[in-house]
Sequence to fold (202 residues):
Amino acid sequence: MIQTIIFDLGGVLVDWSPLYVYDNYFETEADKNFFFEHICTSDWNEEQDGGRSIQEATELLISQYPEWEQAIRDFYGRWHEMMRGAITETVALLEKIKQSGLYRLYALTNWSAETFPAARERFEFLQWFDGILVSGEEKTRKPFPEFYKKLIDKYQIEINSAIFIDDNLRNVEAAKSLGIHSLHFTSAESLQKELIALNMAI
Fold:
């Protein structure tokens, strides 16, 4: 019987993408591809999610790619433009779950400690959670087991009665390896069907 639901935020409840800034930023598609494949890569961004400072991360890349300085600085200089808004369908589902009063709600998010306060201020639904663990604040991140364990230990979560939801399959598989029933998020509609199939009151 499910008693606790753990949500990822970006890609599940918050619509965030660097492409909102960079989709038409460069002169050529080749430049855009090079930028994301070799400069502001996913691995680079995840280091900030894991606790590295934005200033350190930015200056590191500028020292390596000085000709790309403005594009590098714009990654965090225009970060608020990448956070397009709430994924309203999932937020509506979260609200139904919250209003039922039947489940404990937590969030486990890979997010820079420096940018997360802007999300807290912008999105009222973040106040609906019983607790949120932010990777940048904890200095570790998904898919590392210690990040999941920090949440479990801090909030005394019984993993046998918990479910974890994330849009990144890598993070879902990591949670499963710890014995947490996990769902790969693709849409709010599919998620609702999967939760109903688990006999949850949604």
